[in-house]
Structure formats: structure tokens, C-alpha cells
Design goal:
The chain has 425 residues and is of the alpha+beta class. Strands 1, 2, 3, 4, 5, 6, 7, 8, 9, 10, 11, 12 and 13 form a 13-stranded mixed beta sheet that branches. α2 runs antiparallel to α3.
Length: 425
């Protein structure tokens, strides 16, 4: 009789125990998910703040080199936005990352001050020496904060777990092609002419272009410049190409595999790339910037006309660093923009144009070039003949572009050189 009375109680207690265990497990999973969401959010805020501070330094240094109010308005407006972005993301992190009261106050004041200077520059006011001194100090302190934040990848995103290694998060690789790599990619393809080729003709052109042993059809490409797709077999790799239907020009090609052993240096690869372009009818080209990765050397070339560098007519060439073979090409900008330019005679000499460059820049060289510029009326991009001045300030290298007809400062770029190549910001 006692067992019969206890049996329902045991069943109820068992059910309650199972329910309690289930609830505890559910709460544990919820806590884990919540903790993961918080950590992911903090990781995102960390890298967003670091990106903003890196760009902030670049734009502040460029503002100190620029001399025209228009450039100051543009650059300082960006500084204001970047400082606000860094502050917003830092505020989501523990104070150990620089998100203490003084750090956030510094960024907010930088944003407000830069916005004030940008508004004044938009009305034509130039920077005073006091402004220059203040911006130089902001640049120095911004660099200190950025370096502190960089060292914080080992802090972790949770103050209670100091010392945890979170280096598994990967930064995206920055691949940049030098000045004005975006060029002009709209409208009619000025460099293309001739009749439309067939898919069979594309196979033959690709085979001859690469000296390939075998070619076959691949996926075609539509868009502003319709192309035939071709797959080509080289000695030990396969290369995919897109050939323009009008004129049968190689718009781009890329290897399906990489990771080659690097035995050639960049100089040798640049010579191989230049010879390849000359032998394939691209005319006079000049190498500008390069980058190395996965056993490939990617060299950017710009066309040359009458000793004037044509930045919109850009071609990128990928060279294997083991054999020197050409396995990649990107000629979208070239075939979109390449045409004979009229009136490449400057109104200003290099000496006259240099007077419009900031005296803070130690000029080391100059050359004439054509660059793409926004027309300022939201109707697209046009071109201008400019003097490009290269020089240094505060141990950094810069490129300053002065309109060769009017003396207006059109662009300021910062040059960054690393082990893998050169880029501009």
C-alpha cells in the first residue's frame, strides 16, 4: 500500500527533475548564444574602430599636405565622420581599449573641430598656423590611440577574460592598384572597334594570345562590355578569359590556381609584364605600382601618350613568380577609356604649378599625367591634365595633383610601401 502511495510522488518528482534539467540546459544555451552575440558585436566594433582610426590618420596627414581650401573641406569633412565613427564603435568596447572618458572626449572634439574647419574651408578660408599645429597634434594623438587599439587584439573583448587569444579573426586583404585604379567605367568603350567576333573566333584568339595547348568555351559575361568566356590550358594550370565580342580583345583573365613558389623578384616580373603588353599590341605603357601575394606579382601599368601618363588607361598584369609566365590580366579600364587625347600641352610649367603645392611637402619629382576627376555636378567623371608632384613630409610619402591649366589642387594621395608592394590611400 505504501509503495502505491509513493509511486505517483516519485513520478511527479522525476518529471519535475527532468523539467528542471531541461530548463537549466535551455537557459545555458540561451546564455551561450547571448554571450556569443555580445562577443561578435564587440569584435565588429573593435575592427570598425581600428579601420576608422587608420583612415583618420591618413586623411589628417593629407589635410596637412593639401593647400587648396577645396581639398581641406573634403578631407576634414571625412576626418569629422571618421572620428565620430571611431567614437561610436569604441563606446561599445571595454574602457581598456581606449573607450574611457578621455578617449571618447578626444574623438568627439576631433570630429567637431574638423567639421568646423571643413565648413570654413568650404567658404574659401585657408588653414592658419594655429590650425596646422592643432591638426598635427590630433594626428599624433590619433596615432597613439590607433596603436593602443591595435595592441588590444590580445586584450579580448571581455574585461573578465584578460589574456585570451582571439587572433583567429582574419582581416580582409587590401589589394590596391595605385592612384585612380577605379578610373572611369561607364559609357561607351572608347578603346574597342571592329566587327563582332563569334564564340569560335574567341577560342582561336585566346589560344594565340597565351600560346595555350587547348581552349574550350566557358561562361560568357554580359554587362556594359559583353564578352565570350574561354578556358585555356597552359603547361600546368588552367586560365579563364573573357574576350570582348566587339573587336575580340582580352578584357580580363585569371588563373584558377595560385600559390606559386616565389623565385623571381618584383623587378624581373615587371619586365616580363611590360614585354608581354608590348608584344600584344598595348603600345607604350609605364609601370606604376605592384603587389605580391600567393606567388604572383600583380603590376599596374598606365598608358603613355607624348610623355604624359594616362592614369585612366590602366592595365593590371599577373606574373607567376616562379616561371615569369603571364597568367592574369585586367584591362577593363584600358578598353573603356583608351583613346588619343587632345591638347596635352600644359598652361603651367612644373615650376609654376609647384607654387600651388604646400610648402610643407618636400618635392622630389614631377611629371605630367591625365587623371579622372568628378565633375562636381553629379553627372559623372571627366579627365584633367595635371602635374603630379611626389614628395615627403614627416617621413611619409605623398602624391599631389595640380591642374596643369588652372593651378587648382585636384587630389592628394598618401603612398604606403610594405613588404608586399605599394599602395595609396
Amino acid at each position: 500500500m505504501l509503495k502505491k502511495r509513493l509511486f505517483p510522488l516519485v513520478v511527479v518528482l522525476s518529471i519535475a527533475l527532468v523539467a528542471a534539467i531541461g530548463l537549466a540546459f535551455w537557459q545555458y544555451q540561451e546564455a551561450q548564444a547571448s554571450g556569443l552575440a555580445v562577443r561578435t558585436g564587440r569584435e565588429r566594433a573593435y575592427y570598425s574602430a581600428l579601420d576608422a582610426l587608420t583612415s583618420l590618420e591618413a586623411d589628417l596627414s593629407k589635410a596637412l599636405i593639401a593647400s587648396a581650401p577645396g581639398q581641406h573641406a573634403l578631407l576634414l569633412g571625412r576626418v569629422s565622420t571618421l572620428a565620430a565613427t571611431a567614437s561610436e564603435n569604441l563606446s561599445a568596447l571595454p574602457a581598456a581599449y581606449g573607450a574611457d572618458a578621455s578617449g571618447l572626449k578626444f574623438l568627439n572634439q576631433t570630429s567637431d573641430y574638423a567639421q568646423t574647419l571643413a565648413a570654413a574651408a568650404a567658404e574659401g578660408r585657408t588653414l592658419t598656423q594655429d590650425d596646422v599645429n592643432q591638426l598635427s597634434e590630433l594626428l599624433e594623438k590619433g596615432g597613439e590611440l590607433r596603436r593602443h587599439l591595435e595592441s588590444g587584439a590580445g586584450f579580448t573583448y571581455d574585461e573578465t577574460a584578460a589574456g585570451e587569444n582571439l587572433s583567429g579573426i582574419e582581416y580582409p586583404t587590401l589589394l590596391y592598384d595605385g592612384p585612380f585604379s577605379d578610373g572611369i567605367r561607364s559609357g561607351q568603350a572608347l578603346g574597342l572597334s571592329g566587327e563582332e567576333i563569334s564564340a569560335e573566333q574567341a577560342l582561336a584568339i585566346a589560344k594565340d594570345f597565351l600560346g595555350a595547348s587547348h581552349t574550350q568555351r566557358a561562361a560568357d559575361m554580359q554587362g556594359p562590355i559583353p564578352c565570350w568566356g574561354v578556358s585555356a590550358q597552359l603547361a600546368d594550370i588552367t586560365v579563364t578569359l573573357q574576350l570582348t565580342r566587339q573587336g575580340g580583345k582580352v578584357l580580363w583573365m585569371a588563373p584558377e590556381t595560385a600559390g606559386f613558389t616565389a623565385s623571381l623578384d618584383a623587378a624581373a616580373c615587371m619586365e616580363r609584364a611590360k614585354s608581354f603588353l608590348q608584344s600584344h599590341g598595348f603600345g607604350e605603357m609605364q609601370a606604376s605600382y605592384y603587389q605580391q601575394y600567393d606567388g604572383l606579382c600583380v603590376v599596374s601599368f598606365a598608358a603613355v601618350q607624348d610623355n604624359v601618363l594616362l592614369y585612366p588607361d590602366l592595365v593590371k598584369v599577373q606574373v607567376r613568380m616562379d616561371t615569369g609566365d603571364i597568367v592574369g590580366l585586367e584591362a577593363n579600364n584600358y578598353w573603356t577609356n583608351h583613346t588619343v587625347r587632345e591638347n596635352l600641352t600644359p598652361a603651367l610649367s612644373a615650376e609654376e604649378a609647384q607654387r600651388f603645392v604646400s610648402g610643407r611637402l618636400t618635392v622630389e619629382g614631377s611629371r605630367l599625367c591625365v587623371i579622372p576627376v568628378d565633375d562636381g555636378m553629379n553627372t559623372g567623371v571627366t579627365e584633367k591634365l595635371c602635374w603630379e608632384f611626389s614628395g615627403t613630409w614627416s617621413s611619409s610619402r605623398y602624391l599631389v595633383y595640380i591642374d596643369a591649366q588652372t593651378g587648382a589642387e585636384e587630389q592628394v594621395l598618401k603612398v604606403v610601401t610594405g613588404n608586399d608592394g605599394t599602395l595609396t590611400m
